[in-house]
Design a protein that fits this description.
This protein is mainly α. 71% of the residues lie in helices and 3% in strands. The two termini are 13 Å apart.
């Protein structure tokens, strides 16, 4: 049953939903303010989960939906790696902290705001929380890699 591509895509959808619930818990209960790259990773989890859920519903093209799910998760992993890179920089090399998300989109042209959002800033270099010495983007990266692996397996099984 766990080798059925529909079940695997359903589990991926649930995993993505779980990641968003955990992120919202950390933000609203633990009062950890998300940086710009954290928000981008959340969007990547949402898009990945939606694509996987469409794959659950769409019986004829599961291989396509599983492949698109893997692609979305792979893109999300790039943003996790970018944030881990920023967190690993020596303090003197960390970029300056930038404005908040709302200000970016109010003050800059859309393309420039998106560019700034995707690159991250000094706020993204701050490690606010760890579990087993792994920071939040580290756990996001592990999750994205797992989703890519399961998605590719589902694509193969479809």
């Amino acid at each position: 049953m766990l080798t059925n591509s529909r079940v695997l895509l359903g589990l991926i959808s649930l995993a993505c939903l779980s990641m968003i619930v955990v992120a919202l818990y950390m933000q609203h209960v633990m009062y950890l303010h998300p940086c710009n790259l954290c928000i981008v990773q959340r969007v990547a989890f949402i898009i990945t989960g939606i694509i996987a859920f469409i794959g659950v519903l769409h019986t004829n093209k599961r291989r396509l939906w599983a492949s698109l799910t893997a692609l979305a998760a792979a893109v999300g992993s790039l943003f996790s790696m970018r944030q881990l890179y920023l967190q690993g920089l020596p303090p003197e090399d960390v970029p300056a902290c930038g404005p908040g998300l709302e200000y970016l989109f109010e003050a800059l042209p859309f393309q420039k705001a998106v560019e700034q959002l995707l690159m991250g800033d000094g706020n993204c270099a701050e490690v606010q929380w760890t579990f087993l010495t792994i920071s939040i983007p580290g756990w996001a990266l592990i999750s994205f890699i797992g989703i890519v692996a399961v998605s590719l397996f589902a694509a193969k099984r479809a």
